[in-house]
Amino acid sequence: MLTGLNHLTLAVRDLQRSLAFYRDVLQLNVEATWDNGAYLSLPGLWLCLSEDPQRSGEPGADYTHYALSVSAADFTSLVETLKSAQVPQWRDNRSEGASFYFLDPDGHKLEAHVGDLQSRLAACRQKPYPGMRFNDAQ
């Protein structure tokens, strides 16, 4: 039986550039590094960067992305940090909660989001997506 998300591994073209982005811009903790990889962390997140020459660096056309939590108090500061570092934005926010959608140096689509599943479900109860059904007794 699955118990949760274990870790994310992102293929990167330039380990040092990506390590600097996740460490210095996003402020993840560096747990370990090796010749072509690194382990970083945030509370509840284990992220592996793995150097891969096959990584194209082009973001996919679909909506697949990785959302990272940020507090409401820190959201504006984080967005300013990302913009001042000239981090590309790939989408405008269209859903509940403050969000900033941005690309890492290898074109991985990321989102900084204020809120959680419970706040999203509460917003959806107020304005459900077309055909949305909730699987509880509320």
Q: What is the gist of this entry?
A:
Helices cover 25% and strands 30% of the residues. The chain is an alpha/beta fold and 138 residues long.
Mind sketching the topology for me?
Elements: E1 8-12, H1 15-25, E2 29-34, E3 37-42, E4 45-51, E5 66-69, H2 72-84, E6 89-91, E7 99-103, E8 109-113, H3 117-126
Parallel strand pairs: 1-4, 5-8
Antiparallel strand pairs: 2-3, 3-4, 6-7, 7-8
Protein name: Fosfomycin resistance glutathione transferase
Domain VOC: 4-115
Enzyme class: transferase
Q: Helix amount, in percent?
A: 10-25%
From the alpha carbons, calculate the radius of gyration and give it in angstroms: 17 Å
Please work out how many helical segments DSSP would assign: 3
H and E string? EHEEEEHEEEH
Estimate the global geometry from the Cα principal axes.
globular
The total strand number stands at 8
Distance separating the two termini: 27 Å
Strand numbers in spatial order across the main sheet: 1-4-3-2
Major sheet details: 4 strands, mixed
The fraction of residues in strands falls at: 25-35%
Low-confidence stretches: none
Mean residue pLDDT? 91
Structural class: alpha/beta
Pfam family, one: Glyoxalase
Keywords: Transferase
Enzyme class: transferase
GO molecular function: glutathione transferase activity
